[in-house]
Amino acid sequence: MAERALVIGAGMAGLWTALALAPTGRDVVLLERDPPPPAGDADSAFVDWNRRGVGHLRHSHAFLARLRLIIRDEHPELLAELLEAGCRDLPFEGGLTDIHKRSYSPAPIDRDLAILTSRRTTLELIMRRYVERQPNITIRSETFVKALRIAPGTIPTVTGVVVEDATGTHDLEADIVVDAGGRTSQAFEHLLEAGVKIPEETETCGILYFTRHYRLNPGEAEPPRGKAALTGDLEYLKFGVFPADNGCFSITLCVPEIEMELRKSIVDPSVFDAACVRLGGLGPWIDPAKAQPISRVFGMGDLQSRWRTMAKDSRAAVLGFFPVGDSLVRTNPLYGRGCSFAAVSAHLLRDAITASADPAARVLLYQSATDRDLRPYYDFMCNADRDAVRRAKRALTPGYRPSLRGRLTRSFMEDGVAIAVRSDIDLMRAALMGFHMLEHPQAWLKRPANLAKIMGYWARGKRRNSEAYRPKPGPEREEMLQALGISPQLDVERVMAEAA
Ligand SMILES: Cc1cc2nc3c(=O)[nH]c(=O)nc-3n(C[C@H](O)[C@H](O)[C@H](O)COP(=O)(O)OP(=O)(O)OC[C@H]3O[C@@H](n4cnc5c(N)ncnc54)[C@H](O)[C@@H]3O)c2cc1C
């Protein structure tokens, strides 16, 4: 008889688990606490879909190439439906600088290095409708998983779940339970109550996320891409424009946790927009002659990176239970990798449970696959976050002067790596392979030929590389805060007091 998989949650990871497991002949049941999407189009989903289970549903989302390629190669019909609904492919060519364009000739890999983007409600709506049509999959909405059923043993086994729905409380049995309950999944508390402690590493991402959505006025097109940046990092503020579906786009501003005054003020729509007009090329996008806001400013804090380990020293912690997506590993949304992690973990789970019927072997196989495939990106992102937290703190430290080593490292990154990538099309392709999770995030930097090119650009100096520099993406911190009517002094005094 076919194995039965109960999946907690029908968010990104739940939907991907269904798409990965159902074609193997397993019977997949998704248990989702929230109601189904409203009937209607992408706009109805954006306005009306009640998704209390996904606090970040109305923040900017984009799918990296790793995920887009899974869709393109394994679910071409889904890609067609996403594009039909207005989701956008942002192709490799769109990111080329004037220097690249002069010698650009398309290479086959360029077709793979695209981003898929839209409002997350649109991506999820279309994916969900696609999943609902597939064989072997049932989605039970408004069904809350309140507990795990756990059989004791040398290694405890999860044998099912207890759900609550409109008809009452029920026990459901399963061959495997997949936890796709997201960042706030309760399953690990249930395991702990049963004496199963899953080791986890957590650290702060160091930022808060603020997103506002806009729609182009009728007949208006997106402003032409010029030299001014649509994404940028000013250390006290990071920003990005996310082109979306059906004439919509969103802007996300990320504020370091330490910037207490800025993060309090930026949720005010007028402050948010006033910041945007001072950032890179954002001004023309939100010019009222071009576009109107269609949402308030959504804010989100408590952004943490978290890695959970289901097997250590060749021993599974629990059998019959597999976390995927955010319940397995949470990452900083800035890197846009969470949905790719969700899809990849679902596929790694499929491979592990298909490779062996032995419950313990399955856990070990899944653990080693996630260690191999996802861990390098996780480590890379945590290192980058720690560095960003340090830089944000320094921005608030009066008179701070970096060490010679610090200055050299920064110059290597800004005047060497970034300039080389903006000048050399092959380096750009190589860097994007890591960015898009198509190879180890730093593999390209370890290749001697790439390193030699980077050193060459670095050695040429700023004057000869001048064309590759982008205009400064925005004002200095004090100038920006003053323009926004925020006292820059308050945070500085706090950091000084903490340091004393
Ligand atoms: C601000 C922000 C911006 C982001 N931007 C990007 C981006 O641009 N690109 C990208 O790839 N990733 C991005 N991410 C990450 C991405 O959104 C997550 O990694 C992704 O949603 C994880 O999918 P998931 O299915 O694990 O969790 P979720 O999508 O959160 O889904 C969890 C589901 O489980 C349900 N659920 C929970 N508990 C229960 C229960 N007890 N019973 C029944 N149902 C339950 C919830 O209702 C929900 O539907 C972003 C994250 C944040 C916070």
Report on the structure:
The radius of gyration is 24 Å and the shape is globular. Strand 8 (157-165) and strand 9 (168-173) form a beta hairpin. The model has no long low-confidence stretch (mean pLDDT 95). It is an alpha+beta fold and 500 residues long. Helix 2 packs across helix 6 (120-132). Helix content is 41%, strand content 21%. The strands form six sheets. Strands 12, 13, 14, 15, 16 and 17 form a six-stranded antiparallel β-sheet that branches. A five-stranded parallel β-sheet has the order 6-2-1-10-21, with helices on one face. It has 19 helices and 22 strands. Flavin-adenine dinucleotide binds at residues 8-14, 31-34, 53-54, 56, 59-63, 144-145, 180-183, 185-186, 209, 300, 325-327, 333, 336-340, 342.
